[in-house]
Specification:
Blueprint: H1 8-11, H2 13-24, E1 30-35, H3 42-56, E2 60-65, H4 70-83, H5 92-108, E3 115-119, E4 136-140, H6 150-160, E5 165-168, E6 181-183, H7 200-210, E7 218-222, H8 231-242, E8 248-253, H9 262-273, E9 279-283, H10 289-298, E10 301-304, H11 313-320, E11 325-328, H12 333-336, E12 344-346, H13 349-361, H14 363-380, H15 383-398
Parallel strand pairs: 1-2, 1-3, 3-4, 4-5, 5-6, 7-8, 7-10, 8-9, 10-11, 11-12
Helix pairs in contact: 2-15, 4-5, 7-10, 8-9, 8-13, 11-14
Bound molecules: uridine-5'-diphosphate (UDP).
Uridine-5'-diphosphate binds at residues 41-42, 45, 194, 222-224, 253-254, 284, 288, 292, 311-314, 317.
Length: 407
């Protein structure tokens, strides 16, 4: 795992010095992160990189995953969809199962660290274990909260208001709450296997393994198979563009243990692909970081045609590789892409097809977008900025009763 000073090559030494100063005030402060999956999806991706760096800085950080049965994860996926705006109704039994599973986890987990850092709705009700004047609790929301289903929001809000602070990824997700809200965007790690530079031979060998032709244009979307990532829409876009420009489509993704909908979405995609030899539907096992890195680097254009998106790490990953990205203008994606400057933002299948055709036919323009995109990621969305924001948040909670913090 990368050592902090390795990041100087991307962000300069001042940034690392600053992290050490903040962390100096947090030596041995313990922070327990809790989420609902150890692999798959952006939260696990970030925690995998964040925990070792916090430890290196002297913060006593750890990460635990709640336990739940299949039915519990069906309920929480429904909740996830509802918070993304889908109209759903919950039965009393479903709500009870959500609360019961949280209660079970409360009874089984040690929740005694100085800061308890809960990620997303699945473990949100763990907060009932919080004691007044005890440790500090943060609820970190990674999802697109621009238009949540009201019933689900009202239900969850009761629990969120019991925390000491909440964190959202983008200004448009701000909600009415009794507790402080902090805006902290996610980030990528430039030194990880997923994002580091790769020798050309490795990229070629990954493509050969999947039977993809490196000499013809490659259009890629990497995502869990989830309706909100619109993989069916991506295939429709490709079929429209393919009539005019020769290209191949790579749709690559695996599952997450807390997402039971993947198989159904994958079936829908298979139906529409119809054995097209230029569409590569790749089911990636966990820890396919080098493969994802190679696929992104080999792409002429990267798509992220999400219908809702908390942030979209895959957008940052592609931009970091200087790839032109076409993405849905939703959730946290516009933080990363300024339309026609550092990528293209679209609203429909036809709009995405038009943009894709334009970029495939104008490689110079596409290249410029990718270069501007990389610089935006370098300045704003690398893990060092994320670490700084978290350290400051921890400091503000730990030193709550002090007017001045001397660094
Ligand atoms: N990812 C992965 N394997 C897959 C699909 C996605 O490792 O099969 C990674 C992807 O590279 C990114 C993260 O999982 O780092 C997904 O984060 P994002 O914010 O894009 O979406 P989420 O899945 O959290 O909604």
């Amino acid at each position: 795992m990368a050592k902090l000073r390795e990041y100087e090559q991307y962000v300069g030494s001042d940034v690392i010095d600053e992290l050490e100063i903040y962390a100096g005030k947090l030596q041995n402060v313990s922070v327990q992160n809790i989420n609902s999956t150890a692999v798959g999806g952006g939260v696990a991706e970030i925690l995998t990189r964040m925990i070792p760096l916090l430890k290196e800085l002297g913060v006593n950080a750890c990460w635990d995953v709640i336990k739940g049965g299949e039915k519990f994860f069906e309920v929480t996926k429904k909740m996830h969809n509802a918070l993304h705006g889908q109209q759903v109704t919950f039965t009393r039994d479903e709500i009870d199962l959500y609360l019961y599973t949280n209660e079970q986890n409360r009874n089984e987990m040690e929740l005694k660290k100085d800061i308890i850092f809960i990620h997303d709705p699945q473990p949100c009700a763990l907060v009932l274990a919080k004691k007044s004047n005890g440790n500090r609790w943060i609820w970190r929301c990674h999802i697109d909260f621009s238009n949540p289903d009201l019933f689900t929001w009202q239900f969850l809000k009761e629990y969120i208001n019991k925390y000491d602070a909440s964190v959202f990824s983008a200004p448009s997700f701000e909600r009415k709450l009794k507790i402080p809200q902090v805006l902290i965007s996610p980030s990528i790690d430039p030194t990880s296997d997923k994002n580091k530079e790769l020798p050309d031979e490795i990229i070629t060998s990954v493509l050969e393994r999947f039977g993809i032709d490196r000499k013809r244009p490659i259009v890629t979307q990497i995502s869990r198979f989830d309706y909100l990532k619109d993989p069916v829409g991506v295939v429709k876009v490709f079929k429209l563009v393919k009539k005019h420009v020769d290209c191949q489509l790579v749709l690559a993704g695996g599952g997450a243990t807390d997402d039971p909908e993947g198989a159904k979405v994958l079936n829908d995609v298979r139906e529409i692909v119809e054995n097209d030899p230029d569409i590569f539907l790749l089911l990636l096992p966990p820890a396919s970081d080098i493969e994802i890195n190679a696929l992104q680097r080999a792409s002429s254009v990267v798509l992220q045609k999400s219908l809702k998106e908390g942030f979209g790490l895959t957008v940052a990953e592609a931009l970091w590789k200087s790839k032109p990205v076409i993405a849905g203008a939703v959730g946290g994606i516009p933080l990363q892409i300024t339309n026609k400057y550092s990528g293209l933002l679209t609203h429909s299948i036809e709009g995405t097809a038009f943009a894709l055709k334009q970029l495939l036919q104008n490689p110079d323009y596409a290249k410029r977008l990718g270069e501007n995109g990389r610089e935006n990621i370098r300045r704003n969305f690398l893990i060092t900025r994320h670490l700084r924001d978290y350290l400051l948040l921890f400091l503000s909670l730990i030193t709550k009763n002090e007017d001045v913090v001397y660094l």
